[in-house]
User: Fold these one by one.
Assistant:
Number 1:
Amino acid sequence: LQTIALIVKVNEEENNDKLNDLPENTEQLDLFGQEQETSNKERKTSLIVMPSSLVHNWFNEFKKFAPGLSIYKHIGNERITSSRQLGAFDVVLTTYGLARNDIDMLALFNFKLVILDESQMVKNPVSKTYEAISKLQARHKLVLTGTPIENNLEDLWSQMNFVNPGILGNLRFFCDNFVEPIEQKNPLATERLKRLIAPFILRRHKQDVLTELPDLQEQIVYCKMSELQEKLYEQEKSKARNLILDIKNNKKLANVHVLSQLLKLRQIANHPLLCLDSFEGESGKFEEIIRSLQNVVDEDHKVLVFSSFVQHLELFKDYLSSQGIGFEMLTGETRDREAVVKHFQEDESVKVFLISIKAGGTGLNLTRADYVFLLDPWWNPAVEEQAIARAHRMGQTNKVFVYRFITENSIEEKIRILQDAKSKLAELFVDENNIDFSEESLTFLLG
């Protein structure tokens, strides 16, 4: 909403300046009338690039809060192919993928504003997406993100370099003078970087701007593994430990094998069916979540259920269907996200919303839910906070209850500890969190 207001303000000021410059005998036209437009140079267009899942949400917000602006969704097979046509609109909405594909056309247009939403999408400075986005021309640039640092400080460099090229030097300079010294706990490098980026960051804390926001209560629910589940987990953990030893003795073995084993441990901690179709036992976590879900539904509440694994959500989909409980589901495969969200928000019979945390953890307003279930911990806790914010946001009138389900004596407990231990780096700069996969971290996870 701040960004929409900014675009409206800039447009109004620019149009007023044009009217003041008109000769006295020139007829004054409607500020937003098409008659006024004579060339692309007179009509400055803003471009907003975002994940594909957010295009319709942005479009609806513009129609609601700034109906006087002309909005064009640059998506689909029928999208325009000439940069000259862009000047007919106040705002162009497109996705990172299409911006990359159409960069030769988009780079020809000099936009008034180029805005990146969820700008962590360009965090990799050697990616084709970052290379393409860097070619966009604009008078002003703005990036919006709740997770500016997901992995390391290089993520920050990419986004800052887009907004203000060269402010942090080139990537090699940045790594030599900031990343490496900060990793070595150099306080001078830390303070220097903080001073450099501070003027360019507007950090909005929800508690600061939404003083009337209802309380948020969080609780960790520890779940015991079933006997068969625990046996399987210990077997796979032994394999992972042996892999680490093999890698130490044979450098040709890739760490990817260990990461694959960590993934399997996370799956088993949720439900062994996620990685073993023939498993016929029970999952302690699954049973605990079912009990909690049933209680929430029986008390006539709505709940968001987030998981890293679509297959995990499928298990709950089957259960809810068998019990006749109304639900919706959103994953990366969901086509009409807008319809799914609207159904959950408006239909009282739909009590549960099953959501893949990577597909639906950002950009959604789901204030009808006052319960949030996080079925498994994510490596980056900021992603979890984004998911919670789908319900705990402007428009929410009820107290929000968050339940984090953690399997006892599993990798999930270790992930929670690492989340806390690894939070200091980003908190120094933008109150963020990240986790690395050093040998020390891997050994701790499997300890």
Note: Residues 426 and 432 are 5 Å apart (CA to CA).
Number 2:
Amino acid sequence: MASILIQSVNLSEKKGTAKMAVERIELTHSGVAGDAHAGHWNRQVSLLGTESIVKFEASANRKIAPGDFAENLTTTGLNLWETHPLDRFTSGDIELEVTQIGKECHGRGCAIFSEVGDCVMPKEGIFCRVLSPGILEPGMELEFHPKTYRVIIITLSDRASAGEYEDLSGPRIEEIMSTFFESTKLRHHIVRHLIPDDPHLLEDLLHKAKEELIDVVITTGGTGIGPRDFTPEVVRSLVDKEIPGIMEAIRARYGSTKPAALLSRSVAGVMGKSLVFALPGSVRAVTEYLSEINLSLMHMIYMLHGLDIH
């Protein structure tokens, strides 16, 4: 397990100023006690690695002291800018969750920028919120826990589950989602299920996904108007919020040239901390649908976790 070493802990009473190194800081649910950036928001604790500071010192020909970039924690051991929102750092009972990589530069409002015309914090600093409070001191280590995004794929088909033909849409979804997460350098774990057209089996799998806080649930099949097409009804009965715009836009886009696409009753929604997408059963359809869904998938996930990242 990777970890970072805390080299300095720093405080400031005013925003836009350098922070001063102190012996220890107290993390509370609103951030660092006594720090100007504390509050009920997502940028409660700022971190900057010496890996970034050393590069900046070389380019600016200036020595940088801990806290000069207004970071609460000066660390070493990890390229912090390579982390992602929802990754976590822990030390004993203390737990921090990454909420943002970099930030908008304050320009002349930043002490370092005013002096040398550049700043590294907006590019390579990171911000966290406090999930579990405690005391941090120089010399302590924080273990790094990258988030693994969990995806469940459920194919509904009487014939495929009976072995009469091969399930093609489920594997295609897995291929698309694996490529998506690999392209964004995010860890992921995907599980596929193949079940007959049974609403009770589907409901059981969805309940389990909600309980296990699965990030993304994708079903394929059962979205038409046939007598065995019930997937939208089961999904709607379990979601807390429906996301109608996604499916409406997809139907409108492909229905303009393929009228049969308008017969799909695919739905999207929020089920606890899980996103649920009920897609049609064909390989072509899941490819088309996911090409649109994945454009905003991470934004949806971040919103579910209270992060407003654009």
Note: Residues 85 and 99 are 5 Å apart (CA to CA).
Number 3:
Amino acid sequence: SMKKLINLIAGLLLLSSLSACKSDNPVAPVNPENLNVNIIQPEDRSGTIVVEANAQHAEYYEFYPGDFTDTLLSSNLGTFEYKYEAGGIYTAEVRAYGSSGRFIAQDLRVQIDLPTTIDTTDGYATPLSYEGMELVWHDEFSSNTLNQDIWSYDNGDGCPDLCGWGNNELQIYREENSWIDEGLFVIEARRENFQGRDFTSTKIISADKQLVQYGRIDVRAKLPKGQGYWPAIWLLGRNLPQVGWPKCGEIDIMEMIGGADREKTVHGTAHWYKDGHVSSGGSKTKEIGLDESFHVFTILWDEEAIEWYIDDQFYYRLDITEDHQTEFHAPFYFIINLAVGGNWPGNPDNSTVFPARMYVDYVRAFRKI
């Protein structure tokens, strides 16, 4: 019996030793590998997406929607469902974590197209042809994405050379604040922190792609409402990089400043150089705000003068035959943007509603035959 007892004790000691060896040598942590991500967007245009992620040796996954909501979703299976509340282009991120605590990530470009509630038939419209003129180029925004043969995004806040774009504007421009929906180019200004700025928006230009010199230009648009908004449709001389502003010339087809019932007034202005900066322009006040329906902003431009119109109603003429006005006899490129704040409109206040949208229906450039 003593021998059996000794054997039992020895066996227990052996088991204890084996157990100790096992706990001293845990399974080695593993890093994740080969992350694959798939995005499913239902056709109902609800803003909801489904993200499916898979990676080798992944313990769990995280999804960041990239819409500045501080949202973080976690999943052991790698499947996420998320609803975006605003249309636009977002840079989302999926991370796969291994038992090591390390992760691998993949950025996702998510384009959200929400149904528009804008009645495009509401307001003024102009024809696609005029007697004695030909259509040189136009954009009806009829595709799903911005026409890269015409437009480029002009991103940033102007820094370091022209911070605030020279006007103490508050926004930073980014592609993600715009999209095309039902034949409308939509720019959305948002109150959100991005790269040190508190507001975001979009600016597009046609530099090095589509130019205009003389003729008729029609732009149909519906504008936002609110203190601090500053939508603009304008032209700059192609030689801006060589001669600078204002020697390149500037033609503001339309500017509006929001707040204090100022949305009823459109401004048309030209800027040029004569021993310094010179400007001249006029304005027209409508009975209803430019935010309440679509309007067509027009210039007629030839060798003699530039004339400004809203809904085919003339409101200002500038003679451009002086020797110091050579800027207006050269090619210009388009700019469309929605600024937030600045010297002219002032900054947003507690009455300003975010987000706000600018809708552009078409841009058309004609010239005399």
Note: The helical segments are 2-24, 240-243.
Number 4:
Amino acid sequence: MKVTYDPKADAMSILFYPGKKSTRTEEFEPGLLADYSGKTLISLEILDVSTRIPKKSLKDITFSLLGKSKTYQLA
């Protein structure tokens, strides 16, 4: 998994399968997009992140997947 944050675009990308090509994009709500390869979710993109997540939290993000937590520093 790869997580990036672009402060100029105020966008966060969460790539579950880096390098895999998207076959379709679905917008769940304004500014929240999911990319799929076939039926497999391969990435999420969150726009206007600073309005959704407090700025102090944007330096480090912690995810819990399958009962294991990992903290990522965003570039």
Note: The mean pLDDT is 82.
